[in-house]
Design goal:
single chain, about 475 residues, alpha+beta, Jelly Rolls, Heat Shock Protein 90, 3 domains, six-stranded antiparallel β-sheet, five-stranded mixed β-sheet, elongated
């Protein structure tokens, strides 16, 4: 099969006249490469239109130390520079997967091709628009997967603590309840009147109610130790066994020596040990149940945050968006990174923040990228400020201005204009995708909004402006 017949095998050239294909053949060179030949390294100039006559070529991220396959081209594929294309270089490596033959046309011939070969140019321009569409879809998908990976790791980390707390509390509660029959025997042998029982239950529930409104954990270690010593000594003085084990739970729920004096006055010395053990037994049970409840609420909060973040229960069309909800959910899902670096977070959201119209999932992608980048840029103990305020510029124009400010090293001036370029990253190999800010800028255009950056050492500020 001659070259002209081979070119007609290309689906893109099915309706291109022979004369135009022959025009390309006359100005091109046919070259063959063995398997695993690197045709282009990342950022090398690309100067040819490449017609893949036979073989197989892949674009991968091998230059970064891992052969991550991005795109594969088979027989009759079109690569390289196209008419009216602004391509100067590739961001990744171009390599043959098996013996490959190419027809190469230098870019210097493309202006003449556009003048003399209308149908061929039309076909190649269509190929370029398809490439742009596929590339955009690929980068968006890659960024979504990268974000999903970050959020999955964060969610697993955040869920680990409350789940462990539930398991631990359930095991302890199970062990604790095994001692209930013995405690019941003691209670049954108490000689208490109905009024005395009411006094004990009243003080018990009073302390439970106080626990829900007053945080006794705010006591310093020294204060708590001093109170426990006082209660231990009091119990010891009144002949209560296991006084050291009883003092901790009693102090934890706010019992003082004065409270114990009041109880003693109501029930008498002969009932004190039994009542004290009954109080502590029930306080421990309440504490374990409370811990399980708090951990379960934390799990529910995280699940609700991830559900709202991913918009699992909503349509895919444009809808009303409450930015405050998206910002808070994103902060919740990135909380593990914030805590691991001991970052001081300030979240300021106006109460009168207007509702905007847009795509919630896309905007959550914006907050994830910007906040995640800010966290990575900051040292341990850094400061992160997130604010969202209404911004009315005229009677007819209302906006929401969201700022994300960090005190990291800043973005050097010589690369500041490149940060929104596809695949550009300042992070070391293995960290970041280089996709985030390119995607963010695309989302802003989709919402008729804007994103600006100001940066100097110790202060980097991203400003996101969205129309209401």
């Amino acid at each position: 099969m001659n070259l002209l017949e081979t070119l007609h095998e290309f689906p893109a050239f099915a309706n291109v006249p022979d004369a135009q294909l022959q025009w390309v053949i006359d100005r091109s060179e046919e070259v063959s490469y063995p398997k695993e030949t690197v045709l282009y390294k990342p950022h090398e100039p690309v100067d040819h239109l490449l017609l893949l006559l036979n073989g197989r070529i892949r674009i991968d991220a091998g230059a970064n130390g891992a052969d991550d396959e991005l795109i594969v081209y088979g027989d009759h594929s079109i690569l390289g520079v196209l008419p009216f294309s602004r391509m100067k270089s590739l961001s990744n490596r171009l390599i043959t997967e098996r013996p490959t033959t190419l027809l190469r046309l230098h870019r210097d011939n493309l202006p003449d091709l556009a003048k003399n070969c209308y149908e061929l140019t039309e076909s190649l321009v269509h190929q370029m628009t398809t490439r742009v569409r596929d590339y955009t879809k690929l980068t968006q998908q890659n960024e979504k997967m990268a974000s999903l990976g970050r959020l999955s790791a964060g969610l697993a980390h955040e869920l680990n603590n409350p789940v462990a707390a539930v398991v631990r509390s359930v095991d302890t509660l199970n062990t604790h309840l095994r001692a209930t029959p013995e405690a019941f025997k003691v209670v049954m042998n108490l000689n208490l009147t109905s009024d005395q029982v009411d006094c004990v239950t009243d003080v018990f529930f009073k302390k439970l109610d106080q626990q829900s409104t007053v945080d006794t954990h705010r006591l310093t270690l020294l204060e708590r130790t001093s109170l426990e010593d006082d209660v231990t000594d009091w119990l010891d003085d009144h002949g209560v066994e296991d006084h050291m084990d009883l003092a901790g739970p009693l102090v934890g729920y706010g019992f003082t020596v004065d409270d114990l004096d009041w109880i003693l006055e109501k029930i008498g010395d002969e009932n004190l040990a039994g009542v004290a053990n009954w109080l502590v037994n029930n306080l421990v049970t309440e504490k374990l149940v409370s811990d399980i409840g708090e951990a379960s609420k934390r799990i529910a909060t995280l699940i609700d945050s991830i559900k709202n973040y991913t918009q699992m229960d909503r349509g895919v069309g444009k809808q009303e968006v409450r930015l405050a909800e998206g910002l808070r959910n994103t902060v919740t899902l990135l909380a593990h990174k914030i805590k691991s670096k001991h970052i001081d977070l300030t979240l300021t959201i106006a109460d009168d923040l207007p509702v905007i119209c847009g795509w919630p999932g896309e905007l959550n992608q914006v907050w994830t990228n910007l906040i995640d980048n800010a966290i990575d840029a900051m040292p341990d103990g850094g400061k992160l400020e997130i604010s969202s305020q209404p911004d009315k510029r005229s009677e007819d124009e209302a906006f929401v201005l969201t700022k994300i400010i960090d005190n990291g090293a800043g973005i050097p001036e010589d690369i500041r204009d490149k940060i929104f370029d596809p695949f550009f990253t300042t992070k070391e190999i293995g960290k970041g995708t280089g996709l985030g800010l390119d995607i963010v800028q695309g989302i802003m255009k989709h919402h008729n909004g804007s994103i600006k950056v100001q940066s100097e050492p110790g202060h980097t500020e991203f400003s996101v402006c969205l129309p209401v």
